[in-house]
Amino acid sequence: MSADPITLGGLRGKLVLPELRELPKLLQAGEDVVSLVQGFLRGRPGVLVATTDRLLFLDKGWLFGLHCEQFEYAQLNAVQYDGGLVWARITVVSSGGSADIERAPGDAARAFCESVQPLLGRTTRPRVTVAEQPADPNAPVVTPPQSLPSFADVGGMDALKREAKSTLGLLLAFPDRTEQYRIDWNGLLLHGPAGVGKTHFARALAGEFALGLVEVTPTAIGSDPEKLAAAFAAAAAAAPCILFVDELEKLARPSDRRDPLVEQLIALLEQARAVHGLVVVAATSDLDALDDEVVRPGRFDRRLQVGLPDARARRSILAVALTDRPTDPQLDLDGIAARSDGLTAAALLQAVDVAALAAMEVSAPVSAAHLEQALQGLGGVERPTVDGWTWDRLVLPEKVESELKALQATIEDPEQARKFGVEPATGALLVGPPGTGKTTVARVLAAQARCSFFLISAADVTSKWAGESEQAVKRLFERARAAAPAIVFLDEVDALGAVRGDHDGAGFDRQLNQLLQEMDGIGGDRGVFVLAATNRPDRLDPALTRGGRLSRTIEIPLPDLQGRRTMLAKMTKPMPLAGVDLDALAARTDGFSGADLHALCQQAAVAAIVRGGEAAEPQVQAADFETAVSDLRTQEGAPA
User: CB 274: neighbour CB atoms within 10 A?
Assistant: First the structure.
């Protein structure tokens, strides 16, 4: 193997790219090239090299430097199970036809290459069967395994992969023993929220175990039972094959009078059990919306929950998505994973694409800043944020501030709490007199934890029309889940969550029941935190404050003397004070909230404007504050 042009195993080609001339360095002692041909491995183009001892696949752009004279391309699919080669297949296609060569377990690599050599190295075309095109362009498509992802292309989901290998993988690898032990495989149902990767996992399942794939979607099937039957027939003819039914809840909804499509689906599932090598896999995001007859034991015996990825899985998803992209060597994927709790796999992949585009615009590698900006932008206009709010806006007792900062840390990184065996809270209740800054606390928490912020009052989700209030609550939480990580802030929650039975009519009770259901649901949808505020905690329904809902109560008290002094100093900093004793003023405002002190300063400034008229030097004097204090104390609801 030397000069250019190079003759390899009778297949003549001119190696234009210099990288191909490095091929001899990959060969071991005594190993020689039998054939070299254009190839596709799991959808990736490259060069397939058959040597006397093994098969190599080179996929770094070398395909385009090789001018093959005899064959258009070859497809190679090698399947590994626990490190051992189960079987391999090479499909060679020329302008006149195609042929398959398979290697079964136990065959020597040399023997396999010897069977490849005559086909690839002949000077005349071999006699092969011409591949027939499907007569109906709308016929179900069987995707070959080499065009599908494998488990290596799936980030996270380690438990699901182990489950698949120890069940479906074993059944496929050892069919004789499966029959000996009389083990049946009657279908796999993947369930979990939208966007967590159920479809991607199903495709990788087929690619990992070298199975064809026929996909059935509600859009393609519509309401036509014949199209559904055609898909099952195509999968059965292509066995070993996976028939994947996506969004099963749209095809198999329960009803008083069963739809003909559901009847057909049930009949086909029964027939599929008798087809050797046909595996039925379905996915749904709503188990409760399925007809019980469709998913009963004997049709879908195994159910796997595909949940939101944890920190380790998120890191793996990010790593897989960033493969083959230029990335900053200092990129901290652990930090990005920690800050993306509650996001689905689909959202993470979207963030990587957005970050890569931003990096490409400035001709730079993908960095942590690109990814963080992309994560913050998820959801577009449906991601309301509160930038610029810091803890400096608040004057709180040290104990309360420490408790709130600990809550922020839990919202930012719930995995840290789990390391200590503590399940992070999904909600908290802020209690305290009016004007103490509960809403400000919520905004600061959202800003510092980098969460989207949904501020809701009872008026926002209450309607006089039956059923509208419950739907408004449901839509609120759907928006929050889509914009996760998010904080839902229920201001004056006592107007929304009062003790059931205290109001006339059942509308308020149904609204509260919907709220409780949504709060229970976020236990499985991490990334949404519920924060509520009230100055009447005694009016709340006890179900709101039990464990798993607003299980943590934090009191925001009226400011003490030192707190009032600090607040007055901050509020009057931009004001031209003259002879104002802030210590004395703080002592005189005992019982004032932060909102009262803000109103006091504003009213004093107005009094100074009225008094000063056209004065050259504006001044706010002690007398102006005395006037403001007197006015506030005489107003209804002011401190006594």
Answer: 8
